[in-house]
Structures are given as C-alpha cells and as structure tokens.
Amino acid sequence: MEFLNLIWAKILWLFSWHTLVSIFGIVFALGLVVIVHEWGHFIACRLLGIRVEEFSIGFGKLLKQWKGKKETIFSLRAIPLGGYVKPAGEAYFREVEIKSDDEFAAKPWWARSIMVFAGAGMNYVLAFVIFFFVILFMGMPVTNPGKVPSILGEVKEGYPAATAGLLAGDNITKINNNSIANWKDLLLALDQANKENLPAVDVTYEREGIQTSVNIVFDESKKLGIVVEPTYEKVGIFKSVGMAAYQCYYWTALSLKTIAEKIYHKQAPDMAGPIGIFELVGKGVHNGAEDYFFLIALISVAIGMFNLFPIPILDGGHICFFILEAITGKRPTEKTLNNACGVGAFILIGLVLFATYQDIGRLRKHSVNTAVTETTQDTQKTEAQND
What we know:
The protein is an alpha+beta fold. It is built from ten helices and ten strands. Strand 7 (200-207) and strand 8 (210-217) form a beta hairpin.
C-alpha cells in the first residue's frame, strides 16, 4: 500500500503545476539558446553566399517540414532542446570534391571561420540583449553593504541558520548585543563573534511584523548559511548598454580564470552537466522573470564560450583548422580531420560524464543535508514539547 501511495505521489508531482512550469522553463531557455546559436550560423551562411540544405529546430522524430527560399528545407522535430544547420558541402578536407561555388568547402578559410564563429557570436548577442533589458528594467545590484537592508535572500539547507528555522525574507534586527540596520552591521557582528571564538550567537529577526529571538550554534565552517536579499538601483539606457557589455565580459573572464586556476592547482573544475542545468533552470523559472532571463543570459554566455574552445568537433576546433590552413596554405586530410574529430568527441563525452557525476554528487549531498536538517528540526520540536 505504501508503495502505491509513493507511486501516486510521484505521478501527482510529475503533473503538478510547479513541475509543468519548470519543464516549460527548461524547454524555452535551452531551446532559445540553441536556436539562436544555429540562427547565427544560418544568417552567416546567407550573408556569405553559402547554400543551406536544412535548418532544423529540435532533433529526433520529424514533425513537420517545409521548403523556404534558396532551396533550404526547414524542419521541426520532436525534441525541442537542440537544432542544427546543414550547409551544402560542409566537409572541407583536402580530398573533398567541390561541386558548386555556394558550398561551404568552396569558400575561403576566413569566410568559413566567420560562418562557424557566428553561432557563438549570436549567443553573446542574445546574452547582451537580455542583460540590457534586465538591467534597464530591474537596475543594478547595490554593492555597498551599508546600503543593503539586512533581509535574508536565501537560507541554505544544512547550515545552522536553516536548522534554527530562519527563512528567506526574514529581517535580522539584532545579533547578540549589536543592533543590525544593514548588511554591513550583520557582517561586522558575525566577524566579531568569530574573532571572539563564540560557539553560538543570539539572533533576533522580524517576520511578518513579529520579532523572534533564536540561539544559533555555529558548525565547523563558522558560517550561518545565509545570503543577502539583493537591492537594486535604477540606471539609464546608456549605462545599461555599458553594463550589459560588461556582464558578457565579466562572466566569460570569470569562467576562464576559474578553469585556469583549477587546472594550475591540479584540481577538478566545477561543472554543471545536463542534470545540473535542468535543476538550475527549473528552479530559476520560479524566482521571477528577471532572475529567469538573467539565468538564460548566463547559459547563453556559457554555450557561446564553450563552443569556442579549441576542441576538435566544436566550433573553436574548426576555426583552429581554418587558421592552420591560412598559415600553411593546405587543408587537413580526411584522415587527419576524422581522427581529430574522434578525439574531440571522446573529450566531449568524458566532460559530459564527469559533469553528470558532479551533478549526482551535488544532489546526493543536498539530500543528506536536507535529511540532517529535518532530523535536527524534529528533535528540537520534540525537546520543546517535552520541556
């Protein structure tokens, strides 16, 4: 009977409004990023005079197909999480037979480089546009902690604050004997507690107009597990343009710097695989339109940047072959190109498996932390009732 109840609960969860919204959010976000990427390839082909045989939205089973201009076939397929552009004569190795001037292989190396780069370029254009509108309508986060209210934006599960019952939206008004008016006061009070090596702090917070005090015991990390609720200030159009461009640069530079530091210190880089991305987007769609679209922009930057990595089979790998062709005056042989792409595919599969392994590890840790938190809270309730 318990098993049937569990199955029924899973079915209800699968078809719940929350889950359906999450699925729609995932499909829309990833579909938009991928379609824009492929549209970049398509537009470049049109501008460079490269004939496109097929432009597919999605992959898998064919649902609908129609012929557009210049003999291009447009396809709509069942799984809306991908897509592709198939240019005529896309094989560019040395032995290939070029049949017409509008084939991909017939174009000079620089034209092929532009066509290949255009996909990642459009991902950055998409990210810039989203960043611009989010910043214009939402504003930029206030970075001065003295001007940020001491309201909790997130309480991380498994940490002392969550165990003590604090929730997002709580306004911290006092820590020990220190009155708290902003996030700077809060940080200073916690820093003082750590310097004095206090095992716990008395925290007073306001929730729905009611003041509550609770004693929070530090864990080994000496962190409460609380995150600030962001505060935003409005900016004009021109500043929004500059800040949107800076966001594209900042997240790219930060990602590359983080990867380089991990490699330098011989550490495994933190990666999000399919599970992690689905979970992240699924949660993001419930956090409001601004956060959701900001997340789409971040994913678009990540996809654009990753595609430019010099790994054979990725866009960046093909560009490396084109540059090498410009230097040597020779194209790669079919065997060389196939072997390189085989190595690239092996690397990609390894990265996906590694990222998925990290996703599973994070989910497992999250489940353990949640179980510990719930057990601790149940114990506290029991002790309170006994008292």
